[in-house]
Model the fold of this input.
Amino acid sequence: MALVQWQESLSVGVGALDQDHRSLFSMLNQLNDALQDGTEGAMMAPLLDRLLLYTREHFAREEALMAECGYPDLAAHRREHQQLAVQVRALHQRLTDGSTESLGREVLVLFKTWLTSHIRVSDFLYKPYLVARTRSHDRGAPEA
Ligand SMILES: [Fe+2]
Done:
């Protein structure tokens, strides 16, 4: 059974960002399955590479949209992203150092708690701004 399940109540109102969140959840579920099977060792390097790249791309996409619609708390939101990025880089560094004891479990705990609370609290703060932008685009309103 999946550890974390994306559901409509987690939608931030922008399809591309919801899709990113779904992909992140899917990576966590794959890690959870591997931890239960005891096969996580082989997947840790590619998974952490993907998480590093994916969080970077997803955060850039999200921040560009927030900037585009003039979201007033972009700086604070960006700081949260940067804090997670620092933690992911530190976990990734442990792979290089060979210090992989309990690494999979730590990645799982970090992302599970961070992702769901970040979406429900911080991402939801920008939702009305991004939804309004999407609506005005759908109506063919001229670019600001
Ligand atoms: Fe975010």
DSSP finds four helices and no strands in the chain. The first helix runs from residue 15 to 37. The chain has a mean pLDDT of 91.
